[in-house]
Each structure stands twice: as C-alpha cells, then as structure tokens.
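1st attempt posting a full record on here, be nice pls
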Amino acid sequence: MFHLIFGLPWLLVVTRFLWPLHLSLAAKFAVALLLLVASQFHFWSKLSSGSVLCPEFPRPVVVLFNWAFGGIILLALLQLLLDGATLVDALIPGGSFSVPDGFRYAMAGLAACLAAIGVMQATRIPPLKDIEVHIQGLPRQFDGYTVLQLTDLHISRLFPAAWARAVVERSNILGVDLIAITGDLIDGTLAVRRADVEPLRDLRATDGVYMIPGNHEYYFGYAAWMQHYASMGMVTLENRHVVLDRGGGRLVLAGVTDRASRGGGFTAPDIEAAVYGSPDDAPVILLDHQPSEALRAAALGVKLQLSGHTHGGLIVGLDRFAARANAGYVSGRYQVGGMTLYVNNGTGLWPGFALRLGRPPELTRITLRHAENT
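the predicted structure (as tokens):
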C-alpha cells in the first residue's frame, strides 16, 4: 500500500503530462520507465536496508533520488493546477484553452528547479534561529538562560558523520546553557549508524545535553539506542524530570517518550509522570517529540513545550496537511492556554523525502525571560 500511494503521482504525471506530449511512443515509454524507477525510491530503500525509512545507498544516490522523486511530486501538483484551469475554461462558453508542448516542458523545468532548491535547503547545515520566551514566575536567576533545541536530525546516509560534526561545531560555538534534543536523532540501527552519530558525543553546554526519543528511535532498536545515547553523555528523559538550580532559583526540565512506543510494548508517553513531584515554585519546560498533546501539557501547568516531528510541514501550503495530523501545530510558536509551544522545523529530516520549500531547517536558540505573574 505504501508503494502504491507514492506511485499515484507517477501515474498522474504519465497520464496527464507525458502522454499528451508530441513524442514517439518509444520515447514516452522510456521516460515513463525512468519516472517509475524514481517514484519507487522507497521500494529501492527497502531493498537496500530492509526498511523504507532508511536508504543505505551512497549519499549522492540518495540526493539524486530525492531530487527526482521530489520533482515528480511537484510536477504532479503543477499538473493538478493545470487540469483545474483547463476544467474551468471548459465550463466557460466559448472557452478554447489548449496546452502546447512548450508550456508542459516549462512546467517540468520549473518542477525540476524547485526540487533541486528544495533538496539543497533540506540538506544544508541549518542556520541559527533566535527566539525569546517570556515565562511567568521564571526565577530571576534564569532570566537570560539559553536553551539550544536540536530535533529530527535523522542521522543517516543523507546526514552522515560530516554533517553531524558540522552541526556540533555550530552548536558548541554558541556557548548555550543547555542543549535539548527532542527526538528522531537517527535513521538506521546502531550497527550501521554508530560512526555517523559519534560526533554528537562532543556536544557541550553548561548544564549538559538532554534528549528524548522520537518515533524513529522505536523503529531501529529503541533500547540499544537509548543506552548508547546515555553512554555518549546525554541525559535521557523518559517520562521523568530533572531540577536545575541556580543560586536557589529552580527550573524543571521534563521529557516524555513517544507515541510510537505503544506499538512495541514500550513505556507510553506520560506527561503526568514526567512532571510528578516537581517543585511547585519551579516553572516546567517539557520536551515532547510530537506537539499534539500540547493542551494536556498546558492543563498540567507546563510553561514551555519544545517539540519537533512535523519538519515544519516541508513545503509552504502543503504544511496544512501536516498541521491536520498534529492537532493544528506544525511550525513555530503557539500560545496554548498559559503555555508557549514551540514546534521546531527540524535540524535535519527524514531522508525518504528531503525537500524544503519555505520551511528551512533550524538550530533554535531559545532565551528565557522572566515575566511577572498576573
């Protein structure tokens, strides 16, 4: 079913874009075959690694597949727009709209260029994004406290050790107080990703590096990965919290497991357990990979929730589909009751669809500011 769904854009491109072109039958079949190969990227990924989530081809091949696959998706969308315009024209008396081959070739060129830009945006080292969050009751000792959020690194053949090392170097130079990684660090088992993830061992922050699992941790050997992250110096927050103390002022950092845990018999996410026993006078920051439970977190008194998972929706306009799947939260800052929710676009993203248009990756430095209680 997965491969059939991703084959639908190919079918639309072949029947509505390619077939009307004035080309020989042999040429049409040759182009259709090439497009079919590209459209089945995830099938070839499964053959390469046993999982559609983890292509194990050389990086240039993964990049090429993402460009070709992304171009097919974008061309299918452009064709739908063209079909819509043609239908409207047909309903108008005297309408005689025709589509010359030159226009179709221009559409294909546009889709190819946009796909190339999208892949370049997706795979670059993320730029820094600075935001401030005002928290009522934040102790004065934590006013100006900086948290660097990394999320959805998806370290893989597409985001290998060299990319991870560059992210670490850019992160460390910021000199933040704390680093929070909100899940989906990897794509692949520990056996194949050990060297690629190794640069994360060098992440440095004054109060340490904290992490929670995302859904992809559960797909590739959850227990082994969580143990490995801990051995790398990361503090894992699985339905629990830590209390940070600065000169008597206290701040709680809590984290939960991911909803994907429910399918494998692992501990389900439990916000109540994560914040249970935290000091009444200490504001709570919650790390939750998926943003969809923000209302529950706000009802429990959490002041700031940091999430990822959505990749920002990848493409402006199409991000509305991702929003619908995540309780309306897809990218950036939201006010949920008395809580601020920040949904990070992602440091990396899933290598099975590495395309960003208008939703850039980010290293997010969050500066906490004291706000008076009202």
